[in-house]
Here is the input.
Amino acid sequence: MSIDLENSKRKAAKASKFPEDVVLGMPNVEILGHSEMRIENYRGLIEYTDQLVRVQTKIGQIRITGKHLQVDSYTNDDMKITGKIQNIEYQT
Here is the structure.
């Protein structure tokens, strides 16, 4: 996406009062302590083990490492990951 188009979408989001993550399709990550996280606006699940979960988003990958990781729920809208989350890394 060109920078001009993204800037136009940001301005439209602000003018319309819609959240930028909705208009731009950006991932929304919510973390609850060390044991739960929810990701919205993702594109797909790339890798899933009990120690690593990799999720593709519009802007790159989110890499979650830890112990006893589990994808508790997985819908078209959001994903809930539980376990002992030790590290979250954004890769572009």
Observations:
- The two ends are 14 Å apart (CA to CA).
- The longest strand covers residues 60-74.
- The chain has a mean pLDDT of 87.
- The chain has two helices and six strands.
